Amino acid sequence: MPRDILAQSLLAAAFLVMAAAPGAQAQKDEVEAFRRGPPPANGPAEITLFADTGLRGASVTLTGDQTSFSRLRFNDTARSVEVKGGVWLLCSDSNLKGRCEYVDRTVRNLGEIGLSGNISSAQVTAYDRGPRSYDIAFFANRDFRGPFLGFDEGEARLSQFRFNDTAGSVLITRGTWLVCADNDYRGTCELLDASVSDLGAITLNDAISSFRRYDERREGPWRRPVPDPFYPPGPGGGAGGFEGEQSVFFPAPTYRGARISNRDGAATRFCQDNGFDEAAYKAPGPVLSDVVCR
Predict the structure, then answer these.
(1) Tens-level pLDDT at each residue, the chain (294 residues)
(2) Are 96 and 144 in contact, with CB atoms under 8 Å apart?
């Protein structure tokens, strides 16, 4: 092939590659945007719920809270949502109970977040983490309202977040949690594996100072500690201890079948109620264990 013809062919090929490059890049960007999903919506709070996937079928539009979709004749009907503004808490039961998910963008198939045909209430919220919530979140007011803090791990002192004795409700999306009235998982504690819209129902309204995950497979079944126990002496040194020459070892003290809260002075009171002078040792933890009395 003559050199001039070869050169012209190479120039033409280069031109075609350069012309195609912007289109290829645009296609790549489009694919990447599809993978990321639609962007969060901006503007005033507004959400439209559709009876079918893909934003099709009968629909209702909300611009504020709705605690019961039965009033709209749209209970357990929505299968896709278009978020035009705000962040929304969508729940499977009325009054923002049951399974709940945060949504800040259009979802063309609510089955992706486990709510297809299963939405009964909705609330506009300031929650800023999108559809995937924290593992546990504490709200200042009942019914998951007001200022909140979300966590994926436990905290021994909520005071460092200026949220000590503040929570009025707790939203749990993953895991089982021990919530306690005192720092370091002490005081009155409750084991929770589901959300609680009113912590007053379990006597912990404005009274949570620490919380942590609870692994029943590793820690065994949880029993509520006795808050202020008195221990009548048992036979042979009391409460099932192992008696030595000068001391008795109690591996896991209980009172009426329940573990004993490890409050300050609890070990000494336990030992004195069993006829000893003091506690020589106790293991750390939320309940008394490995107590040595002398």
Answers:
(1) 455 554 455 455 544 444 444 454 544 444 333 333 445 555 688 999 999 999 999 999 999 999 999 999 999 999 999 998 888 889 999 988 888 887 878 899 998 888 999 999 998 876 555 434 678 888 888 888 777 788 888 999 999 888 899 999 998 888 899 999 999 888 889 999 988 989 999 999 999 999 999 988 888 887 776 554 555 555 444 455 555 556 888 887 877 667 788 877 788 788 877 777 788 888 887 888 888 888
(2) yes
pTM assigned to the model: 0.40
Expressed in angstroms, the distance from the first to the final Cα of the chain is 106
Q: How far is CA 225 from CA 73, 140, 185, 251, in A?
A: 46, 26, 12, 16
Q: Which residues of 228-248 are buried (b: 16+ CB within 10 A; e: fewer)?
A: ebebeeeeebbbebeeeeebb
* Cα distances (angstroms) measured from residue 86 to each of 80, 170, 235, 258: 16, 22, 66, 47
**In angstroms, how far is CA 38 from the centroid of its own chain?**
25
d(CA 167, CA 224): 21
Nearest to 151 by CA among 163, 165, 168: 163
Rounded to an integer, what distance in angstroms lies between the CA atom of residue 30 and that of residue 82? 20
